[in-house]
From TrEMBL:
Entry's Gene Ontology molecular function annotations: peroxiredoxin activity
Pfam families in alphabetical order: CMD
InterPro entries the record matches: 4CMD/NDH-1_regulator, AhpD-like, CMD-like
Protein name according to UniProt: Carboxymuconolactone decarboxylase family protein
Residues covered by the Carboxymuconolactone decarboxylase-like domain: 15-97
Family annotation (Gene3D superfamilies): AhpD-like
Length: 110
């Protein structure tokens, strides 16, 4: 897994948020050995879908694919959460997954 980081473009307006994102979230939380990056990606994607955080989910779907989750596993997780978090949330997430899969077809996302 390539270490994630906050968008550099945000450093001008929120340098502390970028620093905390890089050092605490991606530098500590995502690096803890108790869960694999793959598992953390699955948790993150399903949480973002459940909470309808559509602005962030595309980035994390790509990260999930790079961390070893398959499009089938992600689609199944999103289908499963539809019954717990709502149909619109799942449909928005699956639409983004479809777009990403179509954009990256033939590429090695890892």
């Amino acid at each position: 897994m390539t270490r994630q980081s906050a968008p550099r473009s945000l450093a001008g307006i929120a340098p502390k948020l970028v620093e905390l994102t890089d050092n605490v979230l991606f530098g500590d939380v995502w690096e803890r050995a108790e869960l694999s990056p793959r598992d953390r990606s699955l948790i993150t994607v399903t949480t973002l879908a459940a909470l309808y955080r559509t602005e962030q989910i595309g980035y994390h779907l790509r990260t999930a694919l790079a961390n070893g989750l398959t499009k089938e596993e992600l689609a199944e997780a999103i289908t499963h959460l539809a019954f717990y978090a709502g149909w619109p949330n799942a449909m928005s997430a699956i639409t983004q997954l479809q777009k990403i899969v179509e954009e990256t077809e033939g590429e090695d996302v890892r």
